[in-house]
Specification:
By secondary structure, the protein is α+β, with helices and mostly antiparallel strands. It has a domain of 60 residues. The strands form two sheets. A three-stranded antiparallel sheet has the order 2-3-4. It is globular, with a radius of gyration of 13 Å.
Length: 90
């Protein structure tokens, strides 16, 4: 089973309920909206897609299949930018 973990090259700060991420290796900043910020926080608390989706189901009104798809796409985008990495559990 694989877990998503926040890359150690990212510095994050919360501003007015939204997260700002800095990739220190590239110098690029990323802004996350409220939902993206919540997913970012959950990556630190409950790594793994299933755990994150489970927590978000309790917090947001969304169809389970849509939520699963959207969270997976968001995490995939973070992985593609090097902001999150996938590590083997073990």
């Amino acid at each position: 089973m694989q877990y998503e973990v926040v890359s150690d090259r990212v510095v994050a700060a919360e501003l007015d309920g939204e997260a700002v991420l800095l990739d220190v290796s590239s110098g690029l900043y990323y802004g996350l909206d409220e939902v993206g910020s919540r997913i970012w926080m959950l990556l630190n608390e409950a790594p793994g897609l299933e755990a994150i989706v489970s927590r978000l189901r309790d917090e947001y009104e969304a169809a389970p299949d849509d939520l699963q798809r959207d969270v997976a796409a968001f995490i995939d985008a973070l992985v593609a930018r090097g902001l999150v990495r996938v590590a083997q559990a073990g």
